[in-house]
Here is the input.
Amino acid sequence: MTTTEPEFLTAARTFYDAVAADYADRYRDALAAMPWDRAMLGVFAELVTAAGGGPVAELGCGPGRITGHLADLGLDVRGLDLSPRMVELARAAHPAIPFEVGSLLDLPYGDGELAGIVAWYSIIHTPAGELPRVFEEFHRVLAPGAPIVLAFQVGDGALRVDNPFGRPVALDFRRRRPDRVEALAAGAGLTVTTRLVREPEAEEKTPQAYLLAHRPE
Here is the structure.
C-alpha cells in the first residue's frame, strides 16, 4: 500500500533541494556573528556532557553548519534533514559526521536512543496541526533526563518566501509564539527549563526565541 506524503513535506523538500548550494554558501560562517546562538548551543553541549554524553541529533540540519559546531564542542552528533541535496552537502562538508535523510514526523531513532536533540529553526515549516506529533517524536527518542533545544522566529502566521536566490520555488516560514511552543513541549511530556527571546539583529525581521527542555527522569 502506497502512503501519500503530506504536501508540506514535499514543498519543503523541493524548496531546500533547490536552494541548498546557495544557502550553504550564504550561511556557512554565520554562527561566528551570532553569540546568543553559540551560547545556547554551548549550554546544551555542557548539559549533555555533564550527564555522561551519548548520541545527539540535529534535526533539520541543512548543510550541517550547526552539526559541525556541535561536533567541535565534543558531542557525538549526527544530522537529519528532509532534503537529500542538503544531506549531500552536509556529508561533503563534514565527512566524519553521519547524516541521513528523514522527517520530523517519523524519526529514524529507537525509543530513548538520544542523549540530546537540537531542533534549530526546524519546526518552522510544519503546520500547527502536525506539531503535537513532532513533539511526541522528540519525547519518544530522547533518553530520560536528556535535553532538547529549539530555536524559532517569534510571531503569528507565516512569511511566504518566493524565488530565494533567484530559484523558482516558494515556501511558508511559520512564526511561533514561545508560550505555544512551550505548551506543545509540555503536552508531549517535556519539561521546559529555559526560555530566551531576543530582539531582531542584522537582517532579521522578527524576535528570535530559544527554548530548552528535557525529558523527565
About this structure: The first helix runs from residue 7 to 27. The domain at 7-214 is CATH 3.40.50.150 (Rossmann fold). Helices lie at 7-27, 35-50, 65-72, 84-93, 131-141, 178-187. The mean pLDDT is 96.
